[in-house]
Amino acid sequence: MLVHDTVATGRSQADTDQIRASLRARYEELSAEYEQAVLQSQVLRLVEVGDTAGDDQADSGTKTAERDTAQSLLRTILDRRAQFERALGRLDEGTYGFCEGCSAPIPVERLEIFPSATACVTCKQSRERRAA
């Protein structure tokens, strides 16, 4: 079960520790995934540098697309890792599990599916409508 502040919610320290361990584990997984993606990106660049002779426009376009995809993957992993880092910070502050928009508790089911959630469904939908 994912929980919030032990005083405000009446949840135990053991529950908070369980959440911290879960968030930390996911953060570490994303860090390892990032390191692996960086290595793959470096290999891709080395292959590109050593294998440009005879490239036509299609080859150059393919290499550019592969490079862009690799960079996009790196940014996505970094963004997700930052979300978990922020969730850990919120847990330490005692604000984890409460919506940043309306301060209502975020349903446990939402946190179990999306542990780095910072908004309840209603506030999240409102933000998305405003952004559109």
From TrEMBL:
<feature type="zinc finger region" description="dksA C4-type">
    <location>
        <begin position="99"/>
        <end position="123"/>
    </location>
</feature>
<feature type="domain" description="Zinc finger DksA/TraR C4-type">
    <location>
        <begin position="94"/>
        <end position="129"/>
    </location>
</feature>
<keyword id="KW-0863">Zinc-finger</keyword>
<keyword id="KW-0862">Zinc</keyword>
<keyword id="KW-0479">Metal-binding</keyword>
<dbReference type="Pfam" id="PF01258">
    <property type="entry name" value="zf-dskA_traR"/>
</dbReference>
<protein>
    <submittedName>
        <fullName>Conjugal transfer protein TraR</fullName>
    </submittedName>
</protein>
<dbReference type="InterPro" id="IPR000962">
    <property type="entry name" value="Znf_DskA_TraR"/>
</dbReference>
<dbReference type="GO" id="GO:0008270">
    <property type="term" value="F:zinc ion binding"/>
</dbReference>
<dbReference type="InterPro" id="IPR020458">
    <property type="entry name" value="Znf_DskA_TraR_CS"/>
</dbReference>
